[in-house]
Amino acid sequence: MVVVVGSSYWPEDTWTGAGQGSPVSMKDSCSSQMDSGSSQPVGKDMTEAGGEQELRWVELGSEEALGARTEGPSDPQAWGLLLQAVWRGHLGLARKLLRQGASVEERDHRGRTPLHLAVLRGHVPLVRLLLQRGAAVGAADHAGRTPLHEAAWHGSSRVAELLLRRGALAAARSGAGLTPLHWAAALGRTLLAGRLLGAPSPGPALADARGWTAAHWAAAGGRLPVLELLAADGAGLDGALLVAAAAGRVAALRLLLALGARVDARDSAGTTALGVAASLGRRQDMEVLLDHGADPSLKDRHSRSALHRAAAGGHLPAAQLLAAWGVEVDARDSLGLTPLHHAARGGHAEVASHLLDRGAQVNATGWLHSTPLHLAREHGHGPTADLLLSRGASPTLRTQWGEVVQDLVSLEACAKSCPPFAESRSGRGT
Question: Which stretches are tagged as biased composition: Low complexity (predicted)?
Answer without folding.
Answer: 28-40
